[in-house]
Amino acid sequence: MPGLTLRHVARVVLLLLVSALFAYVVASKALDPRAYFENRTPRPPASAVDHELAALGLDGHRPVLARFGHWAWRALHGDLGRTLDGTSVNAEFGRRVGVSVRLLSVGTVTGAGIGVLAGVWAAVRRGRLPDRAMTVLSFLILSVPTFVLALLLKDGALSFNHGVGHTVIRYAGESTPGRGGGFFAQLGDRASHLALPTATVALGSIASYSRYQRAATLDVLNADHLRTAQAKGLTPGRALLRHGLRVSLVPMTTFFSFGFLAVFTGSVFAEQIFGWPGMGSWFLEAAQKGDVNSVVAVSLFAAAAVILAGLVADALLFALDPRVRG
Amino acid sequence: MTALRSLSRSPAALLGLALLTLLFLYAFAGPYVSSWSAADIDYTALSAPPDGRHWFGTNRIGQDVFAQTARGLQKSLLIGLFVAVAGTVCAALVGTCAGFFGGWTDRALTFLVDLLLVAPGFLVLVVVAPSLRDAGWPAYAGLLAALGWMVTARAVRATALSLRERPYVAAARTMGVRPLRIVRRHLLPHLAPFLIAHATISVAAAVIGETSLSYFGFGVQPPDVSLGTLIADSTNVALTYPWMFFFPTGMLLCFVLAVNLVGETLRGRLDPVAAEVHA
């Protein structure tokens, strides 16, 4: 077990380092922070722009790898540099990371949880109405691009609120600014803001999880060990829960890490469309401005999140399948 | 051939093919039927609802929504086709080489694939696409193809690994047939149905990628239009002027749905466990 952990840590560090390098080089080559300064009025002289860029560590005259080395050394000491506006990337990161983590975790858990349950249910009811309806529904959902899904949900909420004559579902921001009230009023406010972004992120994963889980459960339903369990006197439901579900979840762990990529992309769209001040909307703003340091910071967050999802998938596999523990 | 026969037997796939034909007709023949082009501005009809003159209505500056949607759809269809072909060829090459040759070729290629899979593709697109602005939409198509072949390559590699051990491949090798010839004669025909299914599904992924990119302002730039920019421009007025939003969005949904209907039918007959990343 300690050997396994050490290998995991080494792999995580290597992957983070390589993705930081990749993000830094791609962002430095593709983005042009000069334009941000040159577009000011009055137009500053080139030497002044050079000076500002050098202060941010974005000096175009130095080789990319030297700049990366400098950035990485600072980053290892816990300083991710400055944004184009001169504010600290760390501070901005701290302000936004909570928002994204909340959306990502709620989205992942609802997506995987409901998806798995729906898949099992469809498999048990195979060929009957609920199964057919769910197959069609998940197929339709998977054919809607995530940003269109978000827009449709937003329009739906607008029409719904209009119909009810009262703002029930909120679709802008992640809390009502300046709202007082007790803990429960706050909680209700947050929940009404959370509903649509979470649905945007989770609906796609519910659809894809349920299809894979349905296939995995169907495989297990005919397995010998399940028949044995029933022969010993377990009801079909109990046998499936105790002996079938666990086996059918094993292949789903591989899908978990893939599925997380889709959840992450979906959360970027949801943040931008619903006006959440999270990492995703920061990324889009920074890419537009040519803010290399911010782009690299969010990329690092993305890599860390994806790697973490991979580790969670490994841990789930470890917990589910005794053969892996060796 | 069996793949084609299975298509003609499935009503869902036939529906998909019919939809695709209609969309192709609309995108490429539509502009000749209509008297408006995508760039024309009709100052007498601003934000006009659909009528006999403007079949899909006009937008806020008086451009014909029918012509603009056709223009955007053309781009999506071409991008989808290009990415499907280029991405599938790339996946087939990398996957068969990794699986068939094994050893360090396999290790290097697998590492490359894993590395490219760690980055959420959309983030890379957002950063890289604006610097290709001058090259226009073919550059976006190339970029989408470069970011979309990895999952397929993995699946191809796994199949190639198992095919390599088949007796007839071993026999060919013992007889001294050259590796590339074995790949061409014995591996690719086996992989073909699988590759066709994945190519179909990657059409949908590519079109979704391009429209998302353009929606957020990182892809196709005005005055050129894409379904993504059309949807973005009309989002705020979707409820007041529904035709501006409804037609481009509807065409996009129809297209993805049609491609998925065909792709799923093909895939369902072949390989129920193949993983896909839905962005």
Describe the structure.
- The complex is a heterodimer of chains A (326) and B (279).
- Chain A is an all-alpha fold.
- Chain A has 13 helices and no strands.
- Chain B is mostly helical.
- Chain B has one domain (2-278): MetI-like fold (Orthogonal Bundle).
- Chain B is 72% helix and 0% strand.
- In chain B, α7 (150-164) runs antiparallel to α9 and α8 packs across α9.
- Chain B starts with a helix and ends in a 9-residue tail after the last helix.
- Residues 272-279 of chain B have low confidence and may be disordered.
- The chains are: A mainly alpha (326), B mainly alpha (279).
- At the A-B interface, α1, α6, α7, α8 and α10 of A face α4, α5, α9 and α11 of B.
Features:
heterodimer, A: 326 residues, mainly alpha, MetI-like fold, 13 helices, globular, B: 279 residues, 11 helices, 0% strand, elongated, Oligopeptide transport system permease protein OppC (chain B)
Architecture blueprint of SSEs:
The complex is a heterodimer of chains A (326) and B (279).
Chain A: H1 2-30, H2 34-38, H3 46-56, H4 64-76, H5 89-124, H6 129-142, H7 146-164, H8 183-221, H9 224-231, H10 236-273, H11 279-289, H12 292-320, H13 322-325
Helix pairs in contact in A: 1-4, 1-12, 5-6, 5-8, 5-10, 6-8, 7-8, 7-10, 8-10, 9-10, 10-11, 10-12, 11-12
Chain B: H1 2-9, H2 11-33, H3 65-101, H4 103-118, H5 121-128, H6 137-147, H7 150-164, H8 167-174, H9 179-215, H10 227-234, H11 242-270
Helix pairs in contact in B: 1-11, 2-3, 2-11, 3-4, 3-6, 3-7, 3-9, 3-11, 4-7, 7-9, 8-9, 9-10, 9-11, 10-11
Keywords (chain A): Cell membrane, Membrane, Transmembrane, Transmembrane helix, Transport
Family (chain A): Belongs to the binding-protein-dependent transport system permease family.
Subcellular location (chain A): Cell membrane
